[in-house]
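User: Modeling request: complex.
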Amino acid sequence: MSATAAESQAESPLKPPLKSRPRPRARTRRRRDPSSHVVLVAFIVLAVVMLLPFVIVVFNALKTPDEYGANGALAPPEGLHLQGLKDFWERVDFGRKLVNSIIISGSVAVLAVILSVLNSYALGIGRIKGRLWILVLLLMANTLPQEALVYPLYYLSKQLGLYDTRLSVIIVFAVIQSAFGTYLLSSVLSAFPRPLLEAARIDGASKWQVLWRIVVPVTRPTLAVLLVFFFIWTWNEFLIPLVFLISNDNQTVSVALGVLQGQRLMDATMSSASALLGILPTLIFFLIFQRTLTRGLTAGAIK
Amino acid sequence: MTRPASTKPPSQTPGPAGGGGAAPAAAPGGTRPWRSDRAAYLLYLLPGLLLFIGVIVVPFLMNVGTSFTEWSGVGAPTWVGVDNYKTLLADAEFWASFRHNVALIVAMAIIPTAIGLVLAAALTDFIGKNFGARTASVLRACVYLPQLLPVVIAGIVWSWILAPDEGAVNELLAAVGLDSLAHDWLGDPKTAMAGVMVVMVWIQVGFPLVIFMSGLQRVDPSLYEAAEIDGASWWRRFRHITIPQIRPEIFVCLLWCTIASLKAFAPIYVLTKGGPGGATNVPSYFSYQNFFDKTDVGYGSAIATVLTTIIVALTVVFLRVQSKNLEEQ
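Assistant: Request completed. Predicted assembly structure:
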């Protein structure tokens, strides 16, 4: 996590005076040119290798099974054959899985941000007693393996009649994500400009008003980053949704595709269709949230 | 304030700066009234705290409790004391699952960190300087992309690429005339773990790269310039400047990746289901098997508890070193 600190530091300080730089750099640049081209080529090869699985998936998702049989996995498709994707979509009722994933991830993101804000308002600004211990506890909760919670949660949800409902998964992840959110936000808020709070109080604002009219608007950028990450993290979750969502109608994208894969019933074009449909939402998020993601990349990558 | 989420907080909290000491200094006149109504803030903590207790604390304690019982999940559990733990210590399958997890630590922490270091330094030194920051960030994004994918989807992609018949890897081998090497990569106990490891390296390598590249921005360029004038080769600068300078990042990265590898359930579930013949079973999947396949809940809980203990111990080490780093800064 200190990497995150490092990044923020890197922005402000230590830019050496420009004057001292150009000369040695210009010289090394000329000297280094050939070797840096070698490095560039090596990196392009690496990038291709990293992207190759994606390319193969796209190729084969667009082939007919016959074409696959005739030309094999590595040949590019002869045309845009979308039937395989369409069949797979209908077979797993993919639209419904998408809706489930969106409902679950969206609700978790919103609820977890609200919980994080409330908690860290008390911890970071209210500075209530024992907050350090609470924060350590939250950090522990963050690293806790879900395997140590999953069976009791499964049992309790059955007792409460919440088993196999999207609500149960939403509650569980809202709490799990807010443990991280509180941890992060508390320290952001403990550095909150006090004069701003004092001024509001003198003007007669209640705590509730201070929270919603001052703290939340000022920290909006942070909250936006948290919202995006909670959404994506929840989208990517597997174990708890796998255990909780057994009926077809409630499953998320990851669970539906994972279970299908586990049954080993798919042929090659079908599994690449399923992989492509699984990849697409992530790519879409990446394009939509690119800026937020790069901004919070180091914070997010931590999970 | 555009990147508050990625700024100091996590590292700061356990350290002195996150503590209460700073408050009175910041607002000398206004400290008292704030302190006196601190209790009122408890109200804001209440919903979060109750949910936290209900969803994390209670289930966790239940799990620890169950680990001392024999229970099939139905009816009343029977208290058996530490029997489960005794069985565990003598269970070859359990020890094997830990050995496999060591392999996963190699694949998810050690190899990606090593590769990530070299890549980050090379991207910063060669690509960033000679071909522009844009080129560097595009290449970084290519390497990072698998990190964004749900692990399950990554697993589906690969289990098909590594499939025995018609899998892409085998076809590639055939295409270059190495048919003899074609193989049921994930289905053969001898190669299954190696196959899983390759997949995990592919998934994981972008994480250290990103962490280290941002760490490198912090390093004072004059250090490199001085070394360069002294005629130090790239490799020597890498070893004597880059690595020592971003040591905190290296440590954090290794530790986080190790913790992540101890929790690697999804990739095992989709790639191999712990098989063939337990050749790729890891504690996390082993506990799941006991919970839901063998309905030996007590034993599964014991495995999960051991796993938790290891992870918590690693977290404590992490916190300690982290606050030590802060003091040194």
